[in-house]
Each structure stands twice: as structure tokens, then as C-alpha cells.
Amino acid sequence: MSKAGALDLASGVGGKIEKDGVLSAVEQYEKYHGCTGGEEEERKANYTDMVNKYYDLSTSFYEFGWGESFHFAHRWKGESLKESIKRHEHFLALQLGLKPGQKVLDVGCGIGGPLREIARFSSTSVTGLNNNEYQITRGKELNRVVGVDKTCDFVKADFMKMPFPDNSFDAVYAIEATCHAPDAYGCYKEIYRVLKPGQCFAAYEWCMTDSFDPQNKEHQRIKAEIEIGDGLPDIRFSRQCLDALKQAGFEIIWEKDLANESPVTWYLPLDTNHFSLSTFRLTAVGRFCTRNLVKFLEYVGLAPKGSQRVQDFLEKAAEGLVEGGRSVFFIHTYRLPSLILIALDKLMVF
């Protein structure tokens, strides 16, 4: 169901940005980041613009190379990437204890890959919260194709200011999305507010471990590559996320780094030393082909000017993620997926 063709990739670059404005958007986006002299505080202050530009520019690349679910997964030997991603989403639904007919919120839903999988797996109605118009348009079309458009929908809004009344949802989850928030506490507090009493919240989070050394220039470089390549204002330490959850009102009952126990490294699909026909587009050869394809499409005018620049910073991100994973200072998702939290009258699986 994902767009797989070269022309689909070319036509999708830029999202809702006018095609003749893509290069300018790329330049503006790059200026937010440390690699080009940008400051963390500026990224946090302008996170809405930064993240929207990022996903307008990168969504078609994600879907072309990765599929409809824009996240990694704890993976077993003999398990394909696609299988691990589905299991990862099913695990989240099971941790939440979802029941047919419940009303669920997906915070930062992308184009809705997990939303559709979880809705079908659990027979629930899922609302996807997203601030990017292009991703919502794409998600609605994919919902229609698989037939969940009557039970699942999308709301365009900022997850720091959700347009829902208190106690609106039976369950809430976030998959590698709240890392885009400029303030973890503010985001978690909003999630707490819209969650019904006695119900659950589950998430996978991007974090750094205590092995990260802020004085180490190599660590700084890798962190900056991940931030520019993934639209992040900053990457928080896992302990900062846990502290923010407690401040938001949650008591942590269970948290676990599943990536640390994974028989197959989470970053394997991005490792250029690894070759797989099933994930060919992510391999060194596949990336080489995509890079030159994008270069050709831009040259002949089928892809907007600036497309190659997007491909470049996404590749930088891939390199940074692999280096960070190998260095063990970066956890692609601080597997807070297996973290159960409880706060006063609310139970939360995180």
C-alpha cells in the first residue's frame, strides 16, 4: 500500500510546500540545526515550523524506503523488519490492554501505519493527532484503502495543545513521536489530561544513555547529525524523560530498554555493512541507487530542486543513528514501551 515508485517519491517531496519553494524550505530547515550554526533554543522556540518542514520534506522518502510505519523495532533472529514492526505495534496494544470499541489516541501518528495496524489488531477506534497537513492527507487516503476510514480519523493539532476535553480517551500511545516536543513535561502533561481515569498510556521514546559525553566532540557530532536528520529540537537523556513523566503526575511502575536485549541490533537496517534483499532500499547499494535516482529526477525537473539535499541529511541521520547505537550512548527508542506508569487515579503503560 505504500507508495513505492520513483515518480511517487518525486511527486511527494515537499508535501504541501509549493514545488518551487522546496529548496528554500530545505535551507530554512537546515539553519535550525547545529550542523549549520543553529541553536537548540531556536529549534525549541520554532519547533512547529521546524518539524512541519521536516515532515513535508522527508515523508515521501520515509514511505519509499521504510514503509507506512516510521519507527524501528526490537527484533528477533529470523524475523524480518516488517514482521518486527508489526509485532512491536501489537505489543504496544497488548500492553495497553486495548478492548474492542475503545477510543484511542495516537500522539504524533505520522501517516498512520501504526494507527491502522493497532486499530485492526484490537478492533478499536483510533484518532491520529498530527500537526502536518500532508501526512494527514496521505493517512486519510491509506485509511480509505484498507477500510478503516469509518472508525479511525485524524486531527490536525499540536500535541503541546491538544484540542480535546479532559478525560477524552480510553487509551493513549506515542511511537517515537514525543521526541519532537520542545518540552517533555508539557507534552506528557497534555497526554495525562486527555486520558480517562484508570486508563493507560504507552510509548516508545528516543533517548540518550548516560554513556553520552557532552564534552566529547565525536558524540556532539553524532547527536547533531541525528537531530538534523530526524527533525529533533534536542535528544533527551532517558532519566530526563522519566523525571518529566513523574512531574506530569505519573508514577513509574515498569520501564525497560528492550533494544538492549534485542538479539538483532535495532539499527541493522541502516548499517551499510549489512545487505538484505527485503530491505534493499536501506542498504549501501540501495541508498546509492536512490541517491542517483533522486539526483536524476531533480535534474530533469520531475523532483523539485532541493530534493537531493533532503536525501543527504536523511543519510546523515542514518549514519548518526548507527554510530550512536554502536557507541551505546543513543537508544533509538528508550524502550519505554515496556514501561508501566501509574499516577493517582490513572494507570499508564509507557
Short summary of the structure?
Belongs to the class I-like SAM-binding methyltransferase superfamily. Erg6/SMT family. The protein is 44% helix and 14% strand.
Which structural class matches the secondary elements?
A: alpha/beta
Quaternary organisation of the protein chains: single chain
* Ends apart, CA distance between termini: 29 Å
In order across it, which strands form the biggest sheet? 3-2-1-4-5
On the 0 to 100 scale, the average pLDDT is 88
Provide a descriptive summary of the structure in words.
- The protein has 350 residues and is an alpha/beta fold.
- It is 44% helix and 14% strand.
- It has twelve helices and ten strands.
- The chain has helices at 6-12, 22-31, 40-45, 47-65, 81-96, 113-122, 133-146, 184-194, 217-230, 238-247, 284-299, 307-327; strands spanning 103-107, 125-130, 153-156, 169-175, 195-204, 207-208, 251-254, 330-331, 340-343, 346-349.
- The protein has a five-stranded parallel sheet with strand order 3-2-1-4-5. A three-stranded antiparallel sheet has the order 7-9-10, with helices on one face. A two-stranded antiparallel sheet has the order 6-8.
- Helix 1 packs antiparallel against helix 4, helix 2 (22-31) packs across helix 4 and helix 11 (284-299) packs antiparallel against helix 12.
- The two termini are 29 Å apart.
- One of its GO terms (biological process) is sterol biosynthetic process.
- Residues 54-341 form the SAM-dependent methyltransferase Erg6/SMT-type domain.
